[in-house]
């Protein structure tokens, strides 16, 4: 099976793909649109792109591209903790506290703010396009007293030694990735990481009016459908036009969710089911 | 007046600051936390950081840092269109269609997907840490047939010639920046760009239960308070705990918003006013 993902190699997206699909052929893409296009052109069986991730992409770019350009079904979701490690060339492992420069993505450095402030206050920060580019850069300069902040996969890929584990400031910092396919067929994943099912809807309100969102949520509330996420996003049709992304904490059924959708459509909302799919926590 | 902002120079954040505060002393910071800390330490009079921006930062990092680390009041918001331009060294201005490589932030390249596909299909894409770093790189290599995608300020700063304007795929793509201060005092900005007022609340639900959000929105709906944004964000206290960021389309008043907050607190929600402030559209 061929799985495309937002590259480069050894980023957090790669880590999620490697954990979920250990035997798949992995193909990195440079941008989220390129990865989604490759799914659409059937170059790959599925694509994995970040949905909520401060490091490698943003919900905006992924959802905007899916909604405006290539409406592919979401067939799965991967939730992964952000675990940042400090790594150096093996040559510097015993005197890592003396590193003079730390390389990483600017957001990864921001995520390790407290650790760096307490332990490596004098080291200079150098920003790279990704955490994995930082690990590669450090691995190619064994003579320099420098370190990278990246994930475990990057340490393995580039032969670096992790000298401090889990240096990120918050333990419950997670990234979310979605799996998209050309056809709405789930990947047959028999994984102990399976954690439940959800359904994602896009709802466009007829016009911006006080209480319209409240009316929309009523359709879910009285059916006791639990929403785990709601986000308003500006539509690209003019300032002040919005659509909503809503996650419902269950699989598509034959009564409740179709009933809620019918009610929303009767209110002149436009509703699109972006997917009903299993999610996995790694 | 000293205004700090998320750097480097000539990014979209700098463009927003330059437009709003043409006479201020501008100080770039490397990361969102550094800029917010500088406000807190009173090194600067105000800080400008991105709130919704796929290029230079993310709502997550800014709001998380404000909510978890440094609760500074939001005193203003700047909404700016994303306008991407293709620029080259003046030497190449007449034969820009022959450029072999295009330098920019990966998201900026993604935002200009259609233009690049139609006009510069064979050019290789090279990713940089920011659009402004790309413009600087191109300006320093006049002998190479390369181009950058960046904003107008970067073209001016680095002496590049814009050869194609507005090559971004969507016209209504906007970035939002917030202005934070140490004290909750508005900056006295007498600007024709003033477009209205809003109030931003953080609401933490007592526990994850079906319909809880619906109940929260009722408090606003029956008072005819118009919400222009709602976003659920995972709290960093465990998977499945959420808080909500809600924007109300008006200034803090003495009756309606305080009444809604009192009602939410009676439902055991925790409510924090992140700011009540004017916004400007540039």
List strands and helices in order, with pairings.
The structure is a homodimer.
Chain A: E1 2-6, H1 12-20, E2 25-29, H2 32-40, E3 46-52, H3 59-68, E4 74-81, E5 85-88, E6 101-104, H4 106-111, H5 113-119, E7 124-127, H6 131-139, E8 146-150, H7 152-158, E9 161-164, E10 174-180, E11 194-204, H8 212-221, E12 227-234, E13 242-248, H9 256-266, E14 270-281
Helix pairs in contact in A: 6-7
Protein architecture, described:
The structure is a homodimer of 282-residue chains. The first copy, chain A, is α/β, with parallel strands linked by helices and 282 residues long. Chain A has 3 domains: 89 residues, D-Maltodextrin-Binding Protein, domain 2; 80 residues, Periplasmic binding protein-like II (D-Maltodextrin-Binding Protein, domain 2); 88 residues, Alpha-Beta Plaits. In chain A, a hairpin with a 7-residue loop joins strand 12 and strand 13. In chain A, helix 6 runs parallel beside helix 7. The longest helix of chain A is centred in the last third of the chain and has 11 residues. The radius of gyration of chain A is 21 Å and the shape is elongated. The relative contact order of chain A is 0.17. Chains A and B meet through helix 3, helix 4, helix 8 and strand 12 of A and helix 3, helix 4, helix 8 and strand 12 of B. Chains A, B: This is Prephenate dehydratase. Chains A, B: It is an enzyme of class 4 (lyase). Chains A, B: Its EC number is 4.2.1.51. Chains A, B: It comes from Parageobacillus galactosidasius.
């Amino acid at each position: 099976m061929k799985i495309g993902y937002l590259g480069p190699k050894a980023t957090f997206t790669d880590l999620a793909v490697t954990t979920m699909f250990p035997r798949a052929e992995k193909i990195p893409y440079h941008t989220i649109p390129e990865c989604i296009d490759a799914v659409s052109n059937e170059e790959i069986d599925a694509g994995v792109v970040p949905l909520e991730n401060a490091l490698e992409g943003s919900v905006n770019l992924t959802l905007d591209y899916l909604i405006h350009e290539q409406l592919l079904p979401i067939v799965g979701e991967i939730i992964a903790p952000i675990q940042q490690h400090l790594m150096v060339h093996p040559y510097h492992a015993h005197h890592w506290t003396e590193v003079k420069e730390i390389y990483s993505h600017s957001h990864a450095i921001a995520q390790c703010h407290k650790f760096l402030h307490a332990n490596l206050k004098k080291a200079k920060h150098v920003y790279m396009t990704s955490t994995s580019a930082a690990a590669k850069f450090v691995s190619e300069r064994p003579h320099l007293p420098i370190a990278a902040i990246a994930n475990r996969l990057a340490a393995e890929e580039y032969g670096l030694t992790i000298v401090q584990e889990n240096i990120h400031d918050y333990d419950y910092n997670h990234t979310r990735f979605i799996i998209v396919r050309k056809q709405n067929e789930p990947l047959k994943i028999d994984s102990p990481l399976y954690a439940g099912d959800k359904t994602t809807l896009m709802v466009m309100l007829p016009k911006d009016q006080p209480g319209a969102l409240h009316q929309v949520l009523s359709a879910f509330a009285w059916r006791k459908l639990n929403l785990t996420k709601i986000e308003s996003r500006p539509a690209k049709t003019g300032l002040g036009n919005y659509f909503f992304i809503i996650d419902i904490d269950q699989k598509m059924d034959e009564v409740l969710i179709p009933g809620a959708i019918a009610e929303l459509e009767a209110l002149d909302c436009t509703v699109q089911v972006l997917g009903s799919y299993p999610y996995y926590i790694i």
